[in-house]
Design a protein that fits this description.
Number of helices: 6
Largest sheet: none
Distance between the termini: 28 Å
Helix content: over 70%
Low-confidence stretches: none
Strand content: under 5%
Order of helices and strands: HHHHHH
Structural class: mainly alpha
Number of strands: 0
């Protein structure tokens, strides 16, 4: 079996792993902002822009991890992280390395990819036979 064949066979499962990892990582941003876990120095007011982002991160992260309504959740998270980049990071400096926005930019593109690629086979969407899968 060639490397290309092996990679092609694993591609759908790796997509699911990418989705789950990205979901867990964005979920911790929401839990930190809204629930104080893991503990950070930043606890925004729920009605503020970061507080609303925390709600989107919490709900969207759960949906992404489960693979439930993956495409719409990923689309919203992609937009939210793009806004975070351009609102909080880009005004500080042009280069993401210097403005601290590497993570927000990467999240935006990962969630944009998931919007088009779907959740992969290890998801509720796939189990339900949803068009979203």
């Amino acid at each position: 079996m060639s490397l290309e064949t092996t990679c092609a066979a694993w591609r759908p499962r790796i997509l699911s792993i990418l989705r789950i990892a990205a979901g867990l990582l964005i979920l911790q941003h929401g839990t930190a902002k809204l629930l104080g876990f893991p503990a950070t120095d930043f606890r925004p007011d729920i009605g503020s822009m970061p507080g609303i982002a925390g709600i989107i991160e919490l709900v969207g992260g759960i949906l992404i991890v489960l693979g439930l309504s993956t495409r719409p959740a990923a689309f919203i998270l992609s937009g939210m992280t793009a806004v975070a980049y351009f609102y909080a990071h880009a005004p500080q400096d042009f280069f993401p390395l210097r403005n601290g926005g590497e993570l927000a930019a990467l999240y935006s593109f990962v969630f944009l990819y998931l919007t088009f690629a779907g959740p992969g086979p290890w998801s509720i969407d796939a189990q339900r036979g949803s068009r979203a899968a």
